Amino acid sequence: MPQLSIPKVLERLRANPPSATVFLHGREEFLREESLQQVLTVVLDPSTRDFNFDQLRGSAADPETLASTLATPPTVAAYRLVVVRDAQGLTPKCRGVVEDFLKNPSPGTILILSGTIPSGSKARFYRTLREETLSVELASLDAADLPGWLVTRGSEVHGAEVEIEAARAMATAIGSQLGILATELDKVAAYADGRGRITVEDVRAVGGYVPRVDRWAWFDSVGDRRFVEALSQLPDLLDAGENGVGLLIGLGAHFLKLGLLTDGGRDALERHLGPHQRWLVHRLHPQARQWTTGQIDNVLEELLRTDRLLKSAPLSDRQAMEELLLRIAAGARPTRPLQTAGAD
Asked: Pick from 220, 240, 218: which is nearest to 321 by CA?
């Protein structure tokens, strides 16, 4: 069975199957728990919840209790929900109980397994779960996904438009801890209640953690050929905790996206981007029009050269990055705006 999204899983559960097993797996515990709560809301009747909801932890479960719980029919309700968190902690005997349930499920029982698949594991148990259950992978988000995730969450949870600069400011200040990001977004949304829009000013008023410049704004400065501005922003960026290697990696990803736009147009970049980054197509298109393919290749070569310098030469991150910007500027002589492939 292919990997599903949570909306697809909920759709199947609303179709009232006789029983089902849902496997929520991935490193991002916040997303797993939030998805579990969505399933719970769809499956359980609130009036009979106390009689039809069992929660176990994989490392503490014993096979007899697990088997008995899975065999117990629902009480005055359509379904009984059994949740096993930290499923990676199940003993071999408990895994056998789960596999027996998959072969011969108890009518009216919905089993939810939540956990992580150990890195490099080739255990048949996880392959079985991925293939024979309603399986959803909830992986950790890349740093580049965080602003888009906040924008989407603002719309879906709060019915508010989150300005991308506000989302970038929150992601820069808080990082990839989704639970904390969601809580902070709740606070900012409450502050901006009724306006339907969350701005950088709202973020500053609630948290006071808006940086003078963030990495994404800096990448935009370079992509827009605003080299003097990028040079002036560099000290603040480094003082805020960024380092040369991290900036090189991020700038390389930025220019690879510009290269896709230049060579293949909007469709090529959209195919490359994940769901939380597709807003970048509109943002990056004006930047891509300012570069030729040869100039972008030159930038990527300069990034590689600077990476070698950082690893071998006695240069500080600031010195290496300043030299990089000057060399990119020298190789990016002004040109007339270029028509990218697939442009209107």
From this structure: 218
Return the structure tokens found at 153.
Answer: 């969450």
pTM: 0.80
**Number of CB atoms found within 10 A of residue 56's CB:** 20
HSE on the CB side for 204, CA within 13 Å?
7
| Model pLDDT for residues 126-163, shown as the tens digit of each residue | 999 999 999 999 988 988 999 999 999 999 999 999 99
Q: Say which DSSP state 109 is in.
A: E
Distances in Å between the Cα of 148 and the Cα atoms of 45, 162, 186 are: 34, 9, 16
Three-state SS sequence of 258-275:
HHHHHHHHHHHHHHHCCC
Give dist(CA 288, CA 266) in Å, integer: 10
Structural domains in the chain, CATH included, are 6-137 (3.40.50.300), 143-207 (1.10.8.60), 215-331 (1.20.272.10)
User: 3-class SS at 221?
Assistant: helix
Query: What pLDDT, in 10s, does the model give residues 79-116?
Result: 999 999 999 999 999 999 999 999 999 999 999 999 99
Cα 67 from chain centre: 35
Q: What is the distance in angstroms between the CA of the first residue and the CA of the last residue of the chain?
A: 40
For 196-265, give the DSSP string: SEE-HHHHHHHH----SS-HHHHHHHHHTT-HHHHHHHHHHHHHTT--HHHHHHHHHHHHHHHHHHHHHH
| β-strand pairing of 161-162 with 197-198 | parallel
